[in-house]
Amino acid sequence: MKTIVFDAGHGGHDNGANGFGLYEKDLCEDRVKRMKIILENEYENVKIILTRSDDTFLELRERAQIANRAGADVFISDHKNAFNGKARGFESFIWNGGVGAATRSLQNIVHRSVYNKIKKYDIPDRGTKQANFSVLRNTKMSAILLEEAFIDNRADNNLLQKKEFSEAYCRGVVEGLAEFLGLKKKADQQNMKSVYKEDDWMSEKLDKATKEVWQPVIERWTDEEKQHNPIGKVWLERIKNDELECKDIIRLLGHERLRGLK
Ligand SMILES: [Zn+2]
Fold first, then answer.
1. Which positions, given as ranges, span the membrane (predicted)?
2. Angle subtended at Cα 27 by Cα 18 and Cα 149, rounded to the nearest 5 degrees
3. Which of 25, 55, 90, 91 is the most exposed place for a label (fewest CB within 10 A)?
4. Are residues 127 and 155 in the same domain?
């Protein structure tokens, strides 16, 4: 079992930065909750702890202590940046007081994973950085602090309000963490891949096509749709029964088009 602590920056009377009607503290709370849901839904043997899951104030020291007491494997502090209204972009931090190779590796993997997901929104990459932040200094495990984007910049603020952007960001963090910790995907998702038989001459093509077609489809589903979408259920049943065929993919795409037209 791997334990991840997500720390939503600020909270309560501490709003953090703000811009264009948004408070940093609210965006941070939203992101850590989404990351928790993705990890719990899709990965095995992972325990997620949130330092706060509502709008309450927490001392910086207490945030680190929550992770230390839990014996967490990694600590992720989520923040939104602000400067002069002009600065833009995503950046990540580790402690500048001498960290091990594992922490540098965590930063590099998560940073790359996040930026790969969000670069299509033309947001600048401000790079991997180091700083003397309390939560990084006082945590005993590998710890990083993420600044998703600048809340006081109009273009970045627009992105922060965009559902697709925040999902890409959260997924980038989750996939980076999964890679760093070696987390395993849950079985129903493995089945999607393993359904193709080795002796099937189409298997390679289908496998590639499914990855390209199916994965973005799932990523667009809300959590409720993942639970209740009838095509999702049918699809999963057929996979279990080893009945997956090319026409199912076509049906699924047709269904997706209808959804888009609603
Ligand atoms: Zn902050």
1. none
2. 70
3. 55
4. yes
DSSP H helical segments within 98-198, as ranges? 101-118, 134-137, 154-161, 163-181, 187-194
Ligand 1: centre distance to CA 10 (Å):
6
pTM of the model: 0.73
Q: How many domains is the chain partitioned into structurally?
A: 2
Catalytic site residue from 24, 42, 147, 175: 147
List the domain range (segments joined by +) for residue 248. Answer: 187-261
Tell me the CA–centroid distance for residue 219 and ligand 1, in Å.
28
Residue 147 designated active-site: yes
Distance 237 CA to ligand 1 centre (A): 45
How many angstroms is it from 117 CA to the middle of ligand 1?
22
**Which tens digits make up the pLDDT trace of 88-136?**
999 999 999 989 999 999 999 999 999 999 999 999 999 999 999 999 9
What are the C-alpha distances in Å from 93 to residues 107, 187, 201, 242?
7, 34, 47, 46
* DSSP character at residue 135: H
For the stretch 152-192, pLDDT in tens is 999 999 999 998 999 999 999 999 999 999 999 987 654 44
Name the phi and psi angles at 7, rounded to 5: -115, 110
- Write down which residue in 155, 181, 207 finishes a domain: 181
Pair (166, 200) in one structural domain? no
